Amino acid sequence: MFKKDGLIAFERRTEEFLRLRDSDDLASLLGFAEHTLLLQSVQPQYHLFSIPKKDGTRRWLEDPNQVLKAIQSRLNDYLQSAYWFLKTDAAYGFVDNPTGYEAPRHIHSNAEQHLGKPWLLNADLEDFFHAVKAESIRQLFTRQPFGFGEELAGLLHWPDHQPGTLADGGTHLASIVQYGCN
Question: What is the pTM of this model?
Fold first, then answer.
């Protein structure tokens, strides 16, 4: 939605997001009716499918329905903008960069730092998003820098079809998890 914006736009989106106080504010910010957000939060619809892995087993993925995906995508733009100002020096993956920024953060710029090194660890954590508890994400949104109330924090974690966990297909999840790992 906002992928070609500069630093000033990132600052504006961060301020708008951090001013949120309730579901009506969130609905207005994301451009959806409040009842649509509330319905998607209590009855999230995901399409479950699998893809083959190299070892012959299947990897199961959850793809949100079109409405939920659009909500999550718009939310991700605001989460990414705010994260830009809070990220650690070690953050490279899943980081949106403002246009014109001299030292972009992405997988390539991270890999360049490791060229010529004798060791490289590559790890894939099995069922990572399912291991993250939705309650932890809700609590994350009640603390700084957000300080959101319980209603809004509860709405923002968009639980999985498995009670209490996160769906691995949410377009905003990498951004949310980055805050927890920061």
Answer: 0.80
Residue among 142, 133, 115 at smallest CA distance from 177: 133
Domain ranges of the chain: 7-181
Q: How far is CA 46 from CA 29, 87, 134, 149, in A?
A: 24, 30, 16, 27
Q: pLDDT tens across 35-59, in order? A: 999 998 888 888 889 999 899 999 8
Calpha distance 111→131 (Å, rounded):
27
> Max Cα separation, the chain?
55
| CB-based contacts of 22, cutoff 8 Å, min separation 6 | 149, 151, 152
CA angle, residues 152, 138, 127, in degrees to nearest 5 = 135
Q: Are 73 and 1 in contact (CB under 8 A)?
A: yes
Please tell me the distance from the alpha carbon of residue 158 to that of residue 65, in angstroms, as a whole number.
Answer: 13
Beta-carbon contacts of residue 7 (< 8 Å; ≥ 6 apart): 98, 100, 101
Q: So what's the pLDDT on residue 15?
A: 95
Write out residues in the chain with pLDDT < 50, as ranges.
none
For 76, counting Cβ atoms within 10 Å of its Cβ (0-12 exposed, 13-18 middle, 19+ buried), the class is buried
Q: Which of 80, 72, 175 is nearest to 129 (CA)?
A: 175
